[in-house]
């Protein structure tokens, strides 16, 4: 018609709708009691409970059943072996108490699509965690940035394995393998194996969640080095669990930090509109710090263990002081340290029996 538009501007809108799937007729129906805790990783074995038809555990759905109305949880099953029925169940969205969780999985023949995390680009080179972006290049995290309306602001230049034998300032070498081990709604896990100068092999397992990430690092030699050394791209203020404070600005060299922070288990650097928090989940023997020239910070935990050094990182688009960083570090260490919980699966409806 010739009628004028009621609204001449673009009036389209978008919204995400979470459609609750009807899982009542799915062949696998189980319950489990999840112990209290702020982070839920549970060891499970579906093997004894599998029905007569093959099911797709990649499409597992979870519901919190406490109360009158079940609520959907974010769930992800990671088998110990590809296609296996025993492994790790990850749950998000639970309260802090002991909870009853109902699990359901469809028949494999039904062809449900497994949910993906969407955190890794198709070529595996860029990681997206909300407003935080980073590149995974030759096994090294680089250009950790915050996406802002005006563009990206890089706060961390790189995170490397650093030692006299393999190189203090850069990580040269050959990437032997890079594999996405898991990619689901809770987390994405990528493992990289790299051979550094001197024949030192470094194995890194990155676990990317929506707001944090962890790095587990092992090496064939200790090398008296730093397994997860951070080079900053912006100036800021350094804080740690020993009460040490220093200015990261490319001046001052070690600024007395290694001596003062010999028992540090967390550190953070905060700029005007960002902060980075690192927590040594497996402990540390001290801190290394070298702030000189263009190498801002050059810092990281020292260690005396060659295998499974695990570090948690948070990058945020707001500034933070020592008090806030310390409280966040305590919360993270309590939630992320320790082994996965143990519990038993039972047939749905038998949980209270």
Summary keywords:
single chain; 353 residues; mainly beta; 8-stranded mixed sheet; 2 helices
Total of helices: 2
Beta percentage is 35-45%
- What is the number of beta strands? 24
Strand numbers in spatial order across the main sheet: 11-12-13-14-22-19-18-16-17
Shape: globular
- Tell me the radius of gyration: 23 Å
Element-level helix/strand string = EEEEEEEEEEEEEEEEEHEEEEEHEE
Helix amount:
under 10%
Main sheet properties: 9 strands, antiparallel
State the distance separating the first and last CA atoms: 68 Å
Mean pLDDT: 91
The helix-and-strand class reads mainly beta
Q: What are the low-pLDDT stretches, counting only 5+ consecutive residues below 50?
A: none
């Amino acid at each position: 018609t010739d009628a004028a538009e009621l609204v001449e501007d673009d009036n389209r809108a978008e919204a995400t709708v979470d459609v609750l799937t009807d899982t009542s007729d799915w062949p696998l129906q189980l319950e489990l009691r999840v112990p209290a805790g702020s982070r839920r990783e549970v060891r499970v074995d579906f093997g004894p409970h599998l029905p007569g038809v093959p099911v797709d555990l990649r499409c597992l759905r979870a519901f919190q059943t406490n109360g009158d109305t079940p609520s959907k949880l974010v769930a992800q099953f990671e088998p110990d072996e590809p296609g296996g029925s025993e492994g790790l169940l990850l749950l998000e969205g639970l309260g802090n108490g002991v909870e009853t969780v109902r699990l359901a999985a469809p028949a494999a023949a039904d062809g449900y699509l497994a949910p993906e995390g969407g955190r890794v680009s198709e070529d595996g080179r860029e990681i997206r965690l909300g407003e935080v972006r980073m590149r995974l290049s030759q096994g090294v995290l680089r250009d950790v940035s915050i996406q802002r309306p005006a563009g990206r602001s890089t706060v961390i230049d790189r995170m490397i394995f650093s030692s006299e034998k393999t190189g203090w300032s850069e990580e040269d070498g050959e990437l032997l393998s890079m594999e996405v081990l898991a990619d689901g709604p809770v987390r994405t896990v990528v493992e990289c194996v790299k051979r550094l100068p001197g024949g030192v092999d470094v194995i890194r397992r990155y676990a990317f969640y929506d707001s944090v990430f962890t790095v587990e690092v092992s090496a064939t030699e200790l090398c008296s080095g730093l397994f997860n050394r951070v080079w900053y791209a912006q100036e800021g203020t350094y804080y740690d669990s020993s009460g040490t404070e220093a200015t990261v600005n490319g001046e001052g060299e070690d600024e007395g930090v290694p001596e003062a922070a010999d028992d540090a288990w967390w550190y953070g650097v905060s700029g005007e509109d960002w902060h980075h928090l690192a927590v040594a989940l497996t402990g540390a023997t001290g801190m290394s710090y070298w702030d000189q020239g263009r190498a801002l910070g050059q810092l990281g935990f020292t260690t005396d263990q060659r295998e499974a050094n695990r570090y948690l990182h948070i990058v945020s688009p707001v500034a933070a002081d020592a008090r806030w960083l310390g409280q966040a570090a305590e919360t993270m260490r309590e939630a992320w340290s320790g082994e996965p919980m143990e519990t038993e699966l039972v047939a749905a409806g038998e949980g209270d029996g």
